[in-house]
Amino acid sequence: MARPAEQPGVDPARLRSYGRRAKTRTGHSRPVAKHPGWRPPTTLELKKRDGFLLARAMEPGSPALPFRLGCEYLISARR
Question: What is the overall mean pLDDT for the chain?
Fold first, then answer.
């Protein structure tokens, strides 16, 4: 899949401002939140996630590692 700016008809300059308008973020996050099986996290789940990510962020490695591990954690927690 091509990057959005590489797709025909997409102006790269317009992508820089994507998400700055609150209505854009809300308008795009609502359909994602309605995805089957998704729900807002509980306070306890957020604390667990934060603790997990903090521990991973303190480990040496790639800057992208905590993000990747966080995604894997959330996917496994959903099961």
Answer: 75
